[in-house]
Hints:
By secondary structure, the protein is mainly alpha-helical. It is built from five helices and three strands, in the order ββαααβαα. The chain has helices at 21-28, 30-40, 59-87, 95-116, 134-155; strands at residues 7-9, 15-17, 92-93. Strands 1-2-3 form a three-stranded antiparallel beta sheet. The longest helix is centred in the middle third of the chain and has 29 residues, at 59-87. 20% of the residues are buried.
Amino acid sequence: MPVVSRIERNRKGEFRLRLPADERKALRAMPDQLRTLLVESPSDPSLHRLFPTAYQDDPEREEEYRELMRDELLEQHLSSLRVMEETVDADRLTEEQAVAWLSALNDLRLVLGTRLDVTEDTYAEQVDHRDPRFPSLAMYSYLGFLEEQLVEALSRALPDRM
């Protein structure tokens, strides 16, 4: 059975969201959860991939980099989450909103994957439905699915250079 596309670009350059109500409901709370973590627990280890190390072998330069960039990176993450939160019930997104969604989905997926300790081996075999991580792993997969849909829709606007 073919997979129904959840996100498609129309002729006007807008992005149509075909998200069922239950999927929108699942996505609705996620931006606030990540925003709370970003603001109230900035040293949480699951956020590391959102603020990667730039100078691993030079702690002094790394500290300098963090002082210069952390607030800007934080604002980018928060802005993307805000757009996703404001448009989760929309039928259409502008290209700017779609790019923000892509960023927010990626951030959510990175944090969830870090918390679940997802590796390449995680999906090597079927995940048991009785595994207590099953609902979170399913959400992780779903976020990846939406991310892929957005990348495909956004890439359709790129000129064909081949």
